[in-house]
Design brief:
By secondary structure, the protein is mainly alpha-helical. The protein has one domain. Helix content is about 75%, strand content about 0%. The chain is built from five helices and no strands. Helix 1 runs antiparallel to helix 3, helix 3 runs antiparallel to helix 4 and helix 4 runs antiparallel to helix 5. The radius of gyration is 18 Å and the shape is flat.
């Protein structure tokens, strides 16, 4: 019980720290002074991405702790959180890096969207009688 409380507290702290990272993005970018629009976009993308990752880790720990006794629900929760994280990251990339002339940054949101679609398909079509490796469930 105490370990669960500590997991929740740690997850909430890291989630809030990620949110603070995102909120602090405009002053961070402004701190770089006069830079090109492309550089502002990249710095914005990196600062927000770090905040999103921290938030994702917090949500992942909360989900894992909540659903640890039900492996199927846990797997579905992790798939869903991962798909949402990829969707949000792709949106961030579309709004920032994809607007720069850098080819890998233009391709990144497409790859994230495609991967998210694969994850959604897999999650939605996973037979309840199968483990994640497509072998019959032993129970």
């Amino acid at each position: 019980m105490l370990s669960d409380v500590l997991f929740y507290l740690g997850a909430i702290v890291i989630f809030l720290w990620g949110s603070a990272h995102i909120a602090a993005t405009p002053p961070i970018v402004k701190g770089f002074g006069e830079i090109s629009l492309d550089n502002r976009r990249i710095i914005t993308m990196e600062a927000v991405a770090e905040g999103l990752l921290l938030g994702f880790i917090g949500l992942l720990v909360i989900t894992t702790t909540l659903l640890k006794d039900d492996s199927e629900q846990l797997a579905n929760g992790i798939y869903l959180l991962s798909a949402v994280a990829l969707f949000v990251m792709a949106g961030l990339s579309w709004m920032t890096g994809a607007k720069t002339p850098i080819l890998p940054m233009k391709i990144c949101p497409i790859i994230q969207d495609v991967r998210r679609l694969f994850m959604d398909y897999r999650r939605n079509h996973l037979n309840k009688n199968q483990h994640l490796d497509n072998k019959p469930h032993p129970c």
